[in-house]
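Work package 3, deliverable 3.1, input record:
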Amino acid sequence: MKKFSVPGFRFSASRAGIKQNHQSDLALIVADRPAKAAAVFTTNRLKAAPVLQGQKVIRGGRLQAVVVNSGNANAATGPRGLRDALATAKAAAQSLGISQNLVLVSSTGKIGVPLPIAKLTQTIPQAVAALSVSGMNDAAKAIMTTDAFPKIHAVKGKIGGRAFTVAGFAKGAGMIEPHMATMLAYILTDLDLPAAAMRKSFKSAVEHSFNSISVDGDTSTNDTALLLASGASGIPPLQPGTTAWKVFEKALNEVCQRLAWMMVQDGEGATKVVEIHVTGAKSAASAKKIAYAVARSSLVKTSFFGEDPNWGRVFAAVGYSGETFDPSSVDIFYGPVALVKNGLPRPVSQERKAHKIMKNKSFPVMIDLKQGRGQAQVWTSDLGYAYVKIT
Amino acid sequence: MKKFSVPGFRFSASRAGIKQNHQSDLALIVADRPAKAAAVFTTNRLKAAPVLQGQKVIRGGRLQAVVVNSGNANAATGPRGLRDALATAKAAAQSLGISQNLVLVSSTGKIGVPLPIAKLTQTIPQAVAALSVSGMNDAAKAIMTTDAFPKIHAVKGKIGGRAFTVAGFAKGAGMIEPHMATMLAYILTDLDLPAAAMRKSFKSAVEHSFNSISVDGDTSTNDTALLLASGASGIPPLQPGTTAWKVFEKALNEVCQRLAWMMVQDGEGATKVVEIHVTGAKSAASAKKIAYAVARSSLVKTSFFGEDPNWGRVFAAVGYSGETFDPSSVDIFYGPVALVKNGLPRPVSQERKAHKIMKNKSFPVMIDLKQGRGQAQVWTSDLGYAYVKIT
């Protein structure tokens, strides 16, 4: 596998002994200098201790280190959990000789089990010692729980003739044994970005990537997406609204969407990634709600697995989305094949064509409501035999 | 099987040739005289033609006949579907010599396929000729699609020393091949009920039965629940607010809940029925939203199948329900076994006890939020291997 790197950042992966399979379970990301930081956390009311702690430190807008442990979520662990998250940050800060307000902690794994905090803090010095500019791939492996493969993607480009990088790694939101799923994503760039505009662009990028996927419809206690900007490219600070800013946003969106896509692809039991594309809705929010109703329907997802062009299930899911629309205006396409036009089915020959489209590993389902200009895309996986066996 | 009957009603089951397996697919319910009628229809925006037609005829508050066909849902069939639903009502009205405004039509089965209307109308005279007071069991079979068993339940009681009956039959809302699920329920009583109060009691009974189950989370295009009161018991008209009315409501609730329970039990691949009981919520609506979030979670349902007391999945589903609550106030019980108290896990020995509870065919999961007096119960099934194989 190609080694990824981003100027201004070093990485490491260590074994703290939290995972029982002796695999690496402690990832460290360290910036050479405090980096600009923006984060999006889970909306679940049950927030894990590191998320509660992370919401505080991110207010400063700058971070220099991120400590991620897999194998234990430090969720539903009460006041002790908060103390443990703080102790982890403190240990990293001490080893690195920086303020603990510059350290963000993430955890993923079992819920309701206290963190083996001594194992973690004892391993941090060796994690610091192992930091390397080419350690991102190993870090991507260290944050995995039951992910089938590490998720990592980079975009390189030029602004004003000088090279920049946006790269990221993530773990999936799929069905995770034995306790919970967590979506974690760390995006790194060597650009220099003003904090407020960077937050805004990241929020939008997350909305159209990690917040536009449906694997099992559940939202975890630990979900965290983080963007760090080191400025190490030497490119002068970017200003929002400029062409250069658009180049950055394009790269950021590509990295987030590619990582999100890999999460869907890694949905346990998934054999296909399907893009549910709703157009002509009354608003973007309405389109997203409809797309999610379709993307989350077990009936729809099993029909994708069976390569059965069962537009009735898609149509009915649109119908129970809670959004208002005129059923006699609805068109439904599988790829380029129209199965429903103005609310009425097309000839059976179209279903045979759609069945062929569904044999692909990935295809779009387009639902046009013709009610307005709102549109949204949600990526979902199929629901196959392996689903229940794994979970 | 015991033969059910309700004074004032006759039933029949016939073969119209809509189902391809040569089983009965046409059920008829006829009252000796126009009966008081109340109905609850699907909230899906994509309503089948018979539902659109039924919403009109129910306004009169009186019905004398119900025609139900299985094998074809007459949904997404446009203006032709509406004409076919009307033609079905007309054929029944002519055969019975009654007004077509006293006939309700229901359909269940494939979506997007025109009704073979000639087969249906030609069979209606023989369906009328076959009417019998003891035909309810056969009618219950005729409305089945992929239901594993017919669903029928009766309660007999006395008011003022005179016997009355509330009985009903239904078909399930589970995963239905090859196209869509439909929930149909017909409840019949020989009591004499004032229309407005009857509507109110039925709406409440449906809310706490058919609208409190989650099999796959989908809402169909054809869902219909109907209550007919013949008054044939000879008991004087009941008045709401009296003890007699409460006796009626109790019987009505039992019949609806028993039929709803059987629907969950018949959820394809289901091996267990689990009652999700939320208490201490800010309102009944909030409790129901939380109960549904838990009941619909694939992660939770697969843990029920695996008899794994995975309270973390339950807690996380409460967390993403969208309702506000204090995680540090939450208790979670599996049967009588406390797994979470004040947001924190109990010792692992409790999980072993809960595992034993989960070996039962049915058990309750209680979530106490301690935020208010709102409560709700939702029944759900587990999600096992058979689920994907069948669908």
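The CA atoms of residues 70 and 145 of chain B lie 6 Å apart.
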